[in-house]
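Batch manifest, entry 17 of 40.
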Amino acid sequence: MELHILEHSLKVASIEKEGIQICTHGLIKLAFLASKTRCKFFSLTETPEDYTIIVDTEGFKELPQSEHISVADATWLALNVVSGGGNASNSQPIGVTKIAKSVIAPLADHNISVFMLSTYQTDYILVRERDLPMVMHTLSSEFTLLRVVNGEAVSAHSLGVTNGFVKPKMVPRPVIHPLSSPSNMFCVTSLDPDTLPSVATLLMDVMFYSGGSKEGGATSEDSTHIRFFSFSLIEGYISLVMDEQTAQRFPNNVLFTSASGELWKMVRIGGQPLGFDECGIVAQISEPLATADIPAYYISTFKFDHALVRRVQRRSSSSGLTQRIIIILSWRRRMTQMVAVSPTSASSTTAVRS
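Output type: C-alpha cells
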C-alpha cells in the first residue's frame, strides 16, 4: 500500500459559536466560491461547543483576526493511505478501522499525535509538520511513501530521523476518556459539485443558522440529540456528515446515498476538552473496533473526538449497536486495569490523539 503525504500545509482552528457571524463571509467564500480563492483543503465541523476549521494556509487568509478564533499551535500535514497507484482521490479508500493497526497504532507507539478527518471519499490522518521525519521513520517499513508535489505523487525518501522511542510490546490500550452516544443517527454523504449552487442557500442555513426550531428531530424532551454537521471541500470533492433529520431537508436525488441507505451511530469521546498533546486517543477507539470488524469513520474536532459506526441492519437496533461498542471498549479498559501500573505511569494524566 501507499502512504501519500499531501502538499497542503494546514491550520486547525476553533471558532466560538458567538463569533461565527464575523467569519461567515470568509467561510462562505471557502465553501461556495472556492474558485475565487487558492484554497484546496477546507473542512468545517459544527459541534455543540464550537466550529472546528481545518484549512490550508491559503484558505486561512480568508478568515478575520478575532478573539473568537483559537488556532492550534502547529502546522499540520495530511496523510492519505491508498490501496493502489495514482492520485489519492481516485484510489479506493481504506477506512479508519482498516488503518488502525498499520498506521494509527504504530504512530501511537512512537508517541506521535494525530488528528483524524474521515470524509465520504477517504480518511485523512493529520500529523504535525515537525513530526513528519518521525512519521516516515515509523511507517516506511509498511508503506511506499510518496510526497504529493504540484498534484503529482513522487517518491519520498525517509529522512532517517528517529524520535528516540523504542517500540514497546503491544498491550491493550486503556479507554481513558468517557464515552457517550447521542440519540440521532447520521448520514455520511456527498454531492456533485455542479449541484452546489442549487443547494447553496440551504447549506448556508444548515451550516450557520439552523441552531433553532428547524431541526425537526431535536425536541426539547430529547436531551441526547446533539448538533453535529461537517462540510469538507478537499481538492474539488465534497463530503457531508449530518443527522438524518437534516438530510431530509435536501431535495431528492441531490445527496449521494448507498443502495442500503446506511445510517451511522456516533460515539463521542471525551468528558472535557482533549487537547492536542495527548497521544493514543484515536488508537484507543479504532483498534478495538478494527478487531471487532466494525467499520467506522472518525472525525477529530478542536475539543472532542467522534467515531461513527455503521448501524447494524436487520433486527439489531441502534441502541443495541451502541451497547456492543461500549462493551467492547469497556472490556479493553478492564483488561488494561488488570495490568500492574507503576507509580510513575499512574501519576501521568496526559495522552496524545493518535
